[in-house]
Amino acid sequence: MSFEELGLSAPVLQAVTEKGYTEPTPIQEKAIPIVLMGRDILGCAQTGTGKTASFVLPMIDILAEGRAKARMPRSLILEPTRELAAQVAENFEIYGKYNKLNMALLIGGVSFPDQERALEKGADVLIATPGRLLDHFERGGILLNDVKILVIDEADRMLDMGFIPDVERIVATLPKLRQTLFFSATMPPEIKRLADRFLSNPKEVTVSRPASANTNVVQGLVIVQDDQKRDALLALIKSQEVKNAIVFCNRKRDVATLHTVLKKHGLNAGALHGDMSQPARTETLEKFKAGDIQILVASDVAARGLDVQDMSHVFNYDVPFSPEDYVHRIGRTGRAGKTGHSFTLATPNEGDLIDAIQKLINTTIPRVEVPGLDTAILEASDGRRRGRGGRRGGRGAAAPERGERSERGGRGPRRESSEPREPRAPRAEQPAEAAPAEAVAAPAIESHREPRPAREPREPRPEREHREPRPDRAPRERRPEQRAEQRAEPRSERRPERRHERDDGHSPVGLGDHVPAFLARR
Questions:
Q1: 3-206 and 217-361 share one fold
Q2: Residue 61 and residue 10: Cα distance in Å, rounded?
Q3: DSSP 3-state of 34
Q4: 247-287 confidence digits (pLDDT tens)
Q5: In Å, how far from its chain's centre is CA 227?
Q6: Interatomic CA distance for residues 117 and 107, integer angstroms
Q7: What's the CA angle centered on 376, arms 294 and 345, to 5 degrees?
Q8: Are 57 and 12 in contact (CB under 8 A)?
Q9: 142-180 per-position pLDDT tens digit
Q10: Rounded to whole angstroms, how far apart are CA atoms 307 and 244?
Q11: Does an H or E element contain 76, and which?
Q12: Is the per-residue pLDDT at 521 higher than 80?
C-alpha cells in the first residue's frame, strides 16, 4: 500500500514524498484512515515503527481548514520529555510545510515570554510537556476549551515519570466532545485503565506484541565484574564497527563520569542527561544527529522517541531497572528496516533484572565474551527484581532521575539499594577474665601514687584599724542671687529635669514615672 491510498491530501503527500518515504509502516497503514474518520484510537506498537507520523499526517489534513484564536489552541499533543516534544514539532514543520498552520512548543528550559508570544498568535497545533502546559494554564495564559484533537503520546513513559496526575488535570479542562489519540509502546494494566477513562469507543490498533524487541536488532549480553565494565565497554567499542552509538547509564553522575573516561581514551563522545540546560541538551542532540559526535553517553532521557538516522549501536552500560526501558533503549537502533546492534553489560548479581527482560521479550539474549576479560556467571534469581538503586516489586519502572524536575513535578522516588545486606555477626562476648583484669589494674595504678602532704594552716589576717567616721558635711549655702532666681521661677520649672523625661527620642515609653537607670542610660 502507498500513502496515496490512505486518503491524505496532496500537500501532505508532497511533503512525505520529498522526505523520501514511499510506503507507510504497519502502524501508519492502520491508524491514518481511522484518524481521518474522526474516531478515537488506542495504538500500541514497538518503538521505531513510525507512531509519530501516524498521528501527525492526518492531523495536518484535519486542521487544514479553520484558524486558531489567540491563546485557544485547536489541538494538543502531550509528550513526556522535552526531546520528544521537540522531535514532534520538527515533524510538523517537515510534513506541514505546504499547509499554513501555526504551531507552539511549550517545554521547560525556554523563557515564558517567547512561548506566550507564540500563543498570542494562535496555535493550531500545541505541543507541550504536562508541567509547562499547567504552568501557562495556571497563569491564565492559555485556554483549552477549544481543543478538538488530543494526542497522548508515550503514555507508558508518562506513567513511569509520574505525569499521570498532571495529565488527568489537563484532560479535565478539555471539552468532552473531542477526538483522542492514545499511543503507547507498551500496554500495562495501568495504561489500559487510563485509556478506558479518556477514550470513547476507541479503535484498537496493535501491530506487534506489546513490549517486544525489534527483530532488526542483534542483541548481546556481556557478564563481567563491576570493576571491569569500563574495560569491557572500551573493548566492545574498539572491536565493533561503530558508526554512531548511544551508551545508556542509569544515573546522571555515571553519565558524566563515563563521558570523561571515553574522552580520555580519545573517543569523540558527548553527554546528555536531565540536569543539563535545555539549550545544551538541544545543541548536543543536534551535533549527534549531524555526526559531529560519534558516541552519546546518556540517561533514559534519550531512550524514548529519539530518531537518529542509521544508528549502528546501542550499549547498555547499566542494566535498566525496568524491562520496558530495555526495549526502548535498543529500539534507538535497527530503525526503518535496517540492522542494528545492542550490547548489555551486566554484573553477576543482576540476574533477576536480566531474567525479567528475557521474560518480557520472550527471548534469551546471547552471551558475548570479551577477549582479555574473565566471563562471570549470573547469580540465580530469587524471584524479586531489583537493581542497583532500583525499587523492588511492582512493575519495576524506572522513576524520574533524582534532581531533575519532571518538567514540572517533583523528583522521583528514592531508589533502594539492590544488594541485600549481609546479616550482622553476633557480637563476641569478652572472656570473663578480661573485665576483672581491667578492674584490678586501676587500683594498682592508684597504689603507686604518693600521698599528698598536708597543707599548713593559714595565718589569720590582721585586724583592720578602727577608723573614725567622717564628719557630716555642712549643707552648701546658696548665693543670694541664686535664691532670688529660684523664687522667681514657677514651681514646675524649678523641678530638676529627669533623665527619662528628655525629649531626645531615647526615652522609653510605657514604663510610667519610674524607669530603671539601666534602661534610661544612653
A1: yes
A2: 10
A3: helix
A4: 999 988 899 999 999 999 999 999 998 788 878 888 898 89
A5: 27
A6: 14
A7: 25
A8: yes
A9: 999 999 999 999 888 888 888 999 999 999 999 999 999
A10: 13
A11: strand 75-78
A12: no
CATH code of the domain occupying 217-361:
3.40.50.300
In contact, 24 and 32? CB cutoff 8 Å: yes
- Supply angle C-alpha 414, 420, 421, rounded to 5: 100
The CA-based dihedral angle spanning residues 206, 207, 210, 214, taken in that order and rounded to the nearest 10 degrees: -160
Q: Contact 152/167 with Cβ under 8 angstroms?
A: yes
Cα–Cα distance between 375 and 369 in angstroms, integer? 6
Q: How far apart are CA 197 and CA 98, in angstroms?
A: 36
Mean predicted lDDT score pLDDT of the chain: 79
β-strand partners of 345: 222
The answer to whether 287 and 175 are in contact (CB under 8 A) is no
Q: What is the DSSP string of 295-337?
A: EEEE-GGGSSS---TT--EEEESS--SSHHHHHHHHTTSS-TT
Q: Which CATH number fits domain 3-206: 3.40.50.300, 3.30.70.3420, 3.40.190.10, 3.40.50.720?
A: 3.40.50.300
In the numeric block, the cell 485547536 is attached to 74
- Measured between alpha carbons, how far is 397 from 394 in angstroms, rounded to an integer? 8
CB 343 within 8 Å of CB 316: yes
Cβ-count burial 347-378 (b if 16+ within 10 Å, e if not): bebbbbbbbbbeebbeeebeebebeebeebeb
176 CB neighbour count, 10 Å cutoff = 5
pLDDT in tens, 221-247: 999 999 999 999 999 999 999 999 999
User: What residue spans define the domains of the chain?
Assistant: 3-206, 217-361
Spatial distance between the Cα atoms of 274 and 303, rounded to a whole number of angstroms: 12
pLDDT at 106: 96
Q: Copy the grid coordinates of residue 332.
A: 534507538
Asked if the model's pLDDT at residue 59 lies above 60, the reply is yes
Q: Which residues contact 310 (CB under 8 A, 6 or more apart)?
A: 243, 244, 338
Query: Cell numbers 524491562 correspond to what residue?
Result: 323
Joined together, the cell numbers standing for residue 383 give 524471584
Instruction: Look at 43-52, 292-301, 316-325 and tell me which has the smallest mean pLDDT.
Output: 43-52
Strand order in the sheet with 245-248: 217-223, 340-346, 313-316, 245-248, 295-298, 269-272
**pTM exceeding 0.85:** no
For residue 202, what is its C-alpha cell?
476507541
**Range name among 90-99, 341-350, 389-398, 424-433 with the lowest pLDDT average:** 389-398
CA distances from 110 to 113, 115, 277, 362 (A): 9, 8, 9, 42
Contact 35, 59 (CB under 8 A): yes
483 phi and psi angles, rounded to 5 deg? -65, -35
Residue 231 DSSP label: H
Helix axes 130-138, 112-120, angle to 10 degrees: 70
